[in-house]
Amino acid sequence: MRKPTIEERTAIAAAVHAAEAGTSGEIVTIVADHSDNYHDVGLQYAVLVALLVPLIFAALPDFPLAIVERLSGGWGSFEMRELMLITFAAMTALFLIVRYGLAYMPLRLRLTPKATRRRRVRRRAIELFKVGTEARTAGRTGILIYLSLGEHMAEIIADEAIHTRVPDSEWGDAMAALIKEVRQGKIAAGMIAAVGHVGHILSQHLPRADDDSNELPDRLIEL
């Protein structure tokens, strides 16, 4: 999925500026390629496949015996060490095949359970929120709209002043609008729609103060 163009980034920044015109809230937008490398997932699959080898050999004992017989030229001389060697070699080969096969990120992402992807996206969003948004405004009024492209998932995380006024359930329409457009490949349109929904909610719960100033950047942050 392509990243937003310069024109689209400008449009997102303009949407943030417009949304903040009616509220003291500060909206931060971030788009990331993915939220985690999921290397541990590839390793887990490789170990699992390797461990299946002795189970298969135990369930189908004629299979490894046929391999040993073929390697011995049909003399039919079987030794335990030969069977163990065949098992170990098969486990090693399958481990390496799966491990390096899953070095391809799109495949690794596709095989990662949805619940795992959801946790990693949430964790990454919180990390970024703590670094770039939390407590960065005088009134604790920052809010992060985070989109992770690889996982096709998003998070909205609000600072203390917003969180105490707005229930998490109210961000549902913003999330739905964002994901709907992103699924069609319209990243900028999705972010703009989400910003609009968030701005509308913030204007109701946290209207703009007379002395309000722009404390966080309006521009889209890309990771």
Structure write-up:
By secondary structure, this protein is of the alpha/beta class. Helix content is 58%, strand content 10%. It is built from 9 helices and 4 strands, in the order αβαααααββαααβ. It has helices at residues 6-20, 39-59, 62-71, 80-101, 105-111, 114-132, 160-163, 172-183, 187-205; strands at residues 26-32, 142-148, 153-158, 221-222. It has a 4-stranded mixed beta sheet with strand order 3-2-1-4, with helices on both faces. Helix 1 (6-20) packs parallel to helix 9 (187-205). It starts with 5 loop residues before the first helix and ends with a strand. The mean pLDDT is 83.
Estimated share of beta-strand residues: 5-15%
Report the strand count.
Answer: 4
Adjacency order of strands in the biggest sheet: 3-2-1-4
Distance between the termini: 14 Å
* Nearest-integer average pLDDT: 83
**Number of continuous helical runs:** 9
Order of helices and strands: HEHHHHHEEHHHE
List low-pLDDT spans.
none
| Helical amount | 55-70%
Globally, the shape reads elongated
